Amino acid sequence: MYSYTDFDEAFVRTRVEEFRGQVARRLDGSLTEDEFKPLRLMNGLYLQLHAYMLRVAIPYGTLRSAQMRQLAMIAERWDKGYGHFTTRQNIQFNWPKLKDVPEMLSALADVQMHAIQTSGNCIRNVTADHFAGAAADEIEDPRPTAELIRQWSTDHPEFAFLPRKFKVAVTGSPNDRAVTKAHDIGLRMVRNDAGEPGYEVVVGGGLGRTPMIGKVLRDFLPKDDLLAYLEAILNVYNLHGRRDNKYKARIKILVHEESIETMRERVEAIFAMQQRLLPDVDPSLRAAIEASFQPPAYKTAETAPGVDGALQSWIDTNTDAHKNPDYAIVSISLKPIGGTPGDATADQMRVMADLAERYSHDELRISHEQNVILPHVHRADLPALHAALVGAGLATANIGLVSDIIACPGMDYCALATARSIPVAQQLSEVFADLDAQRDIGPLKIKISGCINACGHHHVGHIGILGLDRAGVESYQITLGGDGTETAAIGSRTGPGFAYDEIVPAVERLIEAYLDLRQGPEETFLAAYTRLGMAPFKAALYQAEERAHAA
Amino acid sequence: MAREFKPKIVTANDLLEGDVIYLTAEGAWSRRHADALVATTEEDAEELLAQAQTQQHRLVGPYLAEAKIGGDGAPQPVHFREAFRTRGPSNYNHGKQAEL
């Protein structure tokens, strides 16, 4: 894993001290809130409904055990003993006090972490496939690329005041687990005809108010050209992106309004010039970064043959193929039945850190689906690992199933939210609590956002739920057929929304309709929707309701 | 015809704690919605908000929120967002519902 250089260390420490001074000046009255707000946001400190919130970056979703333990310590010492993992591979602490935040940032710096660029109109935390470096289907580990972009984009003077925030995601696999097509820039590792690895560059994706699937700007970009090319894209965006209307300021609107062809012409023109002006990335720098993401020293061990039912069920749902066939990638579900998606207590964080140290070569990952991954687990260790997870309430065998729900914090925490999302997720997981029934329903992604900003990725949920304020009442719109993978698609709205106490029964009716309509257990919800279209699902949603009103 | 004025209170977040606070009749700040001073005219409301805006050193983001008078004579929130702000999140017993 990447370790801070002296430069990184000094940069982060200096930033902490700078913020300590800024907080002191806010508290003694020499800074007004208008002056202080942009400064705190640059350091990841938001003010939410009930308290401040500190958003900490977990670059490309990768953590060492010591870092996870430090997050647990911070949660206990300065917060309420838990943290919330987000769809952008960040962790949020929901209850910090303003005066404590500099100490929290200092504690993060102790383990090479920070909250810089987790807010504001800059290049945000670069996300990556949470199976990076482990996935059997991978062309190359995307994390050296993400780390290179992190170094290039951190405090980049030209890109500190973009028209709007800017999100980059990288995947090294053809199976896209990083939702790259819903990012301002998505990088997908591909090989050219000569077999060399490079990137397919996708631009202009995004969810939010105007959801768009990204378009391919370049089929193949050689690895060595990455930064010059990204610089060219950001240049075009910085110059031509709209600053007159924040709702039209994302690069997706520029690409949409001016066409991908115009975008390509402009980017390629600047890129050609950049190539002459800028040196390529120093090959020794790139090599040093790549060297810090080498695979672990795999061990050999005998795998016990037979396993019991609960363990086998968990292995079936919560493990994925590793590039080393003796190993597995383990997903730890942070979606216990009735729980808050993405939340982990400090005790659970420490358990996961200990287990990672013992069974996963000291590595953990945070997925955009708000779960924790142990990327390198020898199959012989799965029974012991499972037993330890059961003891910590972390063995829910529901990865990819109906109760593995993404939910943003919604109006339980977020100042921007228009409705709650967490209790909807909690109730849905309780309604579908039975794991055998969940397995029968099969792969199904429910994603819930509490406002149109779509942090809960509802547009790309097989079933998406959007909470709105309709004349002072919470109302929930449903979308169907969204897809966040390499076949990305934006879901379609079913029709009028449902009240808070109607949304869970509505989703139940959808799933009952699917079970009736599917050709067999092998036809997933998404496949059935693709085959049948909206009509039968719409009927299930609204006809029962009409009957109820008529009665 | 001018729109009928709906009673309002002034609310903000505390600078140090981040917690929700309400402007009271004494010109102080309370953590309880029931303690809030209710403005019944537009002029009173604007005056209260202006008063809050001079207290930047101890609060963040003051604004007017609609309120109604309950049976006990104390103001109650009208919008569900303001109701949540009087309690805290629904997934844990944290915030005002636990502390007050």
Keywords:
heterodimer, A: 551 residues, alpha+beta, Sulfite Reductase Hemoprotein, domain 2, Sulfite Reductase Hemoprotein, domain 1, Alpha-Beta Plaits, 4 domains, six-stranded mixed sheet, five-stranded antiparallel sheet, 21 strands, 38% helix, B: 100 residues, 3 helices, 24% helix, 27% strand, globular
Chain-wise SSE layout:
The complex is a heterodimer of chains A (551) and B (100).
Chain A: H1 6-27, H2 33-42, E1 45-47, E2 52-57, E3 62-64, H3 65-78, E4 82-85, E5 90-93, H4 101-110, E6 127-128, H5 143-153, E7 168-171, E8 185-191, E9 197-203, E10 215-222, H6 226-240, H7 251-258, H8 260-277, H9 283-291, H10 309-318, E11 319-321, E12 327-332, E13 343-345, H11 346-359, E14 363-366, E15 372-378, H12 382-391, E16 406-407, H13 422-431, H14 435-441, E17 446-449, E18 463-470, E19 473-480, E20 492-493, E21 498-499, H15 503-517, H16 525-532, H17 535-550
Parallel strand pairs in A: 6-7, 7-8, 16-17, 17-18
Antiparallel strand pairs in A: 1-2, 2-5, 3-14, 4-5, 4-13, 8-9, 9-10, 11-12, 12-15, 14-15, 18-19, 19-20, 19-21
Helix pairs in contact in A: 1-2, 1-4, 3-4, 3-11, 6-8, 7-8, 13-15, 15-17
Chain B: E1 8-14, E2 20-23, E3 29-30, H1 42-53, E4 59-69, E5 75-77, H2 80-87, H3 96-99
